[in-house]
Write a structure and sequence with these properties.
about 60 residues, alpha+beta, two-stranded antiparallel sheet, about 25% strand, flat
Length: about 60
Protein backbone atom coordinates (compact mmCIF):
# COMPACT_ATOMS: atom_id res chain seq x y z
CA UNK A 1 0.00 0.00 0.00
CA UNK A 2 1.29 3.44 -0.94
CA UNK A 3 1.78 5.99 1.82
CA UNK A 4 0.44 9.52 1.37
CA UNK A 5 3.11 12.17 0.87
CA UNK A 6 4.08 14.24 3.90
CA UNK A 7 3.40 17.95 4.24
CA UNK A 8 5.83 20.03 6.26
CA UNK A 9 4.49 23.19 7.88
CA UNK A 10 6.35 25.89 9.81
CA UNK A 11 4.85 28.40 12.19
CA UNK A 12 6.51 31.30 14.00
CA UNK A 13 6.32 31.10 17.77
CA UNK A 14 7.77 33.20 20.53
CA UNK A 15 11.49 32.55 20.49
CA UNK A 16 11.63 30.46 17.33
CA UNK A 17 9.84 28.40 14.74
CA UNK A 18 7.83 25.21 15.20
CA UNK A 19 7.67 22.61 12.44
CA UNK A 20 5.16 19.83 11.93
CA UNK A 21 4.91 16.95 9.49
CA UNK A 22 1.61 15.35 8.55
CA UNK A 23 0.25 13.05 5.86
CA UNK A 24 -2.53 14.33 3.61
CA UNK A 25 -5.05 12.32 1.62
CA UNK A 26 -8.17 12.95 -0.42
CA UNK A 27 -9.32 16.54 -0.78
CA UNK A 28 -6.61 17.79 1.59
CA UNK A 29 -4.03 16.36 -0.81
CA UNK A 30 -5.73 18.09 -3.74
CA UNK A 31 -5.72 21.37 -1.80
CA UNK A 32 -2.02 21.00 -0.92
CA UNK A 33 -1.05 20.41 -4.57
CA UNK A 34 -3.22 23.39 -5.59
CA UNK A 35 -1.48 25.54 -2.95
CA UNK A 36 1.91 24.54 -4.36
CA UNK A 37 0.73 25.45 -7.86
CA UNK A 38 -0.95 28.77 -7.12
CA UNK A 39 -0.05 30.03 -3.67
CA UNK A 40 -2.07 30.44 -0.50
CA UNK A 41 -5.32 31.49 -2.20
CA UNK A 42 -6.91 28.46 -3.84
CA UNK A 43 -8.97 28.98 -6.97
CA UNK A 44 -11.18 26.74 -9.01
CA UNK A 45 -8.48 26.67 -11.67
CA UNK A 46 -5.66 25.56 -9.36
CA UNK A 47 -7.92 22.96 -7.74
CA UNK A 48 -8.91 21.61 -11.17
CA UNK A 49 -5.26 21.42 -12.24
CA UNK A 50 -4.32 19.65 -9.01
CA UNK A 51 -7.10 17.07 -9.47
CA UNK A 52 -6.00 16.50 -13.06
CA UNK A 53 -2.34 16.07 -12.06
CA UNK A 54 -3.19 13.64 -9.27
CA UNK A 55 -5.52 11.70 -11.57
CA UNK A 56 -2.83 11.47 -14.24
CA UNK A 57 -0.28 10.28 -11.66
CA UNK A 58 -2.67 7.64 -10.33
CA UNK A 59 -3.41 6.40 -13.85
CA UNK A 60 0.31 6.18 -14.65
CA UNK A 61 0.94 4.22 -11.44
CA UNK A 62 -1.75 1.68 -12.39
CA UNK A 63 -0.34 1.06 -15.88
Amino acid sequence: MRRPPPVVAKQAQAGGVASSVSAVEGEKRVAEVARMLGGERLSGTTLAHAKEMLGDAAAAARS
